Amino acid sequence: MDWLPIALVVLIGGGVFAAFLVSSHLENKRRERVIGLAKELGLELNWILPDEDRGIFHQFQVVQKGRNQKTNLSLVADDGSTRINLFDYSFVTGSGKSQQTHHWVISLCRDEALQAPAMQLKPATFFSRIGTLIGFQDIDISDAPEFSNAFVIQGKDVEGIRMFLDSSRRDALLKYPKQTYALLNQHLLIVREKKKLDAPNIKPLLSESLALVQALSKAQA
What we know:
By secondary structure, this protein is α+β, with helices and mostly antiparallel strands. It is built from seven helices and eight strands, in the order αβαββββααβααββα. Strand 7 and strand 8 form a beta hairpin. About 25% of the residues are buried.
């Protein structure tokens, strides 16, 4: 009997199993760090989105992609007028060898002072610029070329969106031009791709989310 093929199968199988164990260990440690910091900061911890956030979250088009969509490790800070829910989000695209799991960290913010028309702002890329050439919407802010070049802006209320995106709000969004934003009435959604929640980034992301929602909630003087 030729033992070489059997040995190779055993070796490969053992390697895959070992990689799975290491990955599981690292994931458990990450969760432990997040849970520990949530308790330290006095944040509300949930394993799935709370009911009051789930309904509005699924209204945003940017999260309507892929399959096997999952949310977990939801951390909530709420002072009664401003609510920030910071959480992990994942979904799957493709199939077979091209299947890929995408990981995002999302902030879902609500502020009573925010009254925004429905819109979506994505970082402009080479492919998005091609898209605009073949008819995909990209609202132009004629007096703010830097902002227009940084984001692809989409929404039905074109004039309302232009009025809302005044200079102070544009400046706030331009501080983080690599993120995707979606707004709807009192809600702001911030998408950070290729990330997972971990203890070192929780405080910075909460601070960033608060600064953004407050800047967008203020009317230009």
